[in-house]
Amino acid sequence: MKVIPSIKLYGAEGCHKTKYYQLLLNETKLPYQFLDVESNEAYAKELRGLYKNGKLNFPTITIGSKKLRNPNKEEVNKWLNKLIPSRIPLIHEKNKRHFILDINGELARVTYQLRDDKMYLVHSEVPLNLRGQGLGKVLVEKTFERLTSEKFKAVAVCSYIKVIAKRSKKWNSIIEQAN
To answer: What is the pLDDT of residue 155?
Structure first.
């Protein structure tokens, strides 16, 4: 599983905006560091290094290498979802016969067909601009977890889904390999 990127909040203890971001990050239940730039010169130097002008621009949130200066709640959530897809809930749209992860309006999906009381997992797809970030693996593993909770047996038809299923014995009881 992809490691959660480091999340840092640069701010000041007495700043009301910093307190707002602390509450917002606490709601996510993700680990983060609060770096008080007024009481610790090393943190202040680190923050100044993030900006070309060398100013103490706080509050600033960093998620991995992404820097957010005084963002709104939607922007914070947008970047958390993009950089930490494991936090996005999987949606099972039974009428459309697919599972989806909605990453800020872009849909990654696993499509299936039902036959003989089994789900045949025929296709997995991640939007082109989101590939290479581990999203496909997150999507397929979340699908397997949902199949387990919904007590479905499935057959991996899609080559990528087969690869993910073979990587862990955990899925052997619910995922069969198609020829």
So the answer is: 94
Q: Say if 66 falls within a structural domain.
A: yes
- Does 100 map to a domain? yes
Same domain, 53 and 129: no
Q: Please give the residue range of the domain that contains residue 75.
A: 7-85
- Report the C-alpha gap between 163 and 166 in whole angstroms: 5
Please indicate, yes or no, if residue 1 is contained in any of the structural domains.
Answer: no
Give mean pLDDT in consecutive 10-residue pieces for the chain, a chain of 179 residues.
78 95 92 96 96 93 93 91 84 95 90 93 93 88 92 92 91 83
Q: Do 58 and 100 fall within a single domain? A: no
Residues 40 and 106 in one domain: no
